[in-house]
Write a structure and sequence with these properties.
By secondary structure, this protein is an alpha/beta fold. Helix content is 41%, strand content 15%.
Length: 259
């Protein structure tokens, strides 16, 4: 039987505190990769309002990977009254006016029954530290003919793209000088690429030197000519001898053997 009692998480910390804490968990869930049964959003934020005074999603994420480009909204509910009142909002009465191509409620376990969900909505239950997805597009099976794709059609909703774009612009504006950040990131990527090419160059040189060293040692062994090795270092040398002292030891050993 469905309980209407306010969950203990609300009684302990107050409605606002519990709601804020669950919004943070909703953002973390939005960022979860597909391999961990998450939506894999590349950007996720909580309680951000677009330029107008309309919908303020508790958490919204955007995924732009390959050909996938969609938005996911999570509405946090910590009481039955909050859940029931949500259905009266204008963007719930007219789903296409709301944000989120995919939409979820996140609530303490037992607060919302799956059969109470609006059409095409998902449900995430909070049970202590665990989040369990009871319904939603992340549970959609993979297509037999294309195992890397899934059919999200049963869960997809028409969303207010203009409001989503306005929200993204507002988020971008808070970053600061977007062009400066873009140029700094581009410069950092170029430095990283140069460092990777340099490292590869020195790896190739080290491999060639090792190969040449092996050939030379084989030639010395073939003519019974002793050559310096770690095993031939004098036992009196300290274990942490400097490179210079080790080099001097090599020279002394080689001279003693007439190399």
């Amino acid at each position: 039987m469905m309980t209407t009692e306010i969950p203990s998480v609300v009684r302990q910390g107050g409605h606002d505190k519990a709601h804020a804490a669950l919004c943070v968990r909703a953002v973390r869930w939005l960022q979860l990769s597909e391999s961990r049964q998450g939506p894999g959003c590349t950007i996720a934020v909580s309680e951000c309002q677009a330029a107008d005074a309309g919908e303020i999603p508790d958490a919204i994420g955007f995924r732009a990977v390959g050909q996938e480009l969609h938005s996911v909204v999570v509405e946090v509910k910590v009481s039955r009254a909050d859940f029931l009142a949500d259905a009266k909002k204008p963007h719930r009465q007219e789903p296409a006016a709301g944000m989120g191509q995919f939409r979820y409620y996140l609530a303490p376990a037992g607060l919302i029954r799956p059969d109470e969900l609006p059409p095409r909505w998902g449900l995430i239950e909070v049970d202590g530290r665990a989040l369990r997805v009871r319904a939603g597009h992340v549970l959609a099976p993979r297509l037999p003919e294309k195992s890397y794709q899934r059919d999200f059609t049963p869960w997809s909703l028409a969303s207010n793209r203009e409001r989503e774009l306005a929200l993204m612009v507002r988020l971008f504006a808070r970053v600061g000088d977007a062009d400066l950040l873009h140029r700094q990131l581009k410069e950092a990527r170029n430095r990283l690429a140069y460092a990777a090419r340099t490292a590869e160059h020195y790896r190739d040189r080290a491999t060639a030197a090792e190969r040449n060293n092996f050939v030379l040692r084989c030639a010395l062994d073939e003519h019974a000519i002793p050559h310096p090795t770690l095993e031939r270092l004098p036992k009196s040398l300290p274990r942490r001898a400097s490179a210079a002292s080790n080099g001097q030891a090599y020279l002394e050993r080689s001279t003693a053997h007439g190399v």
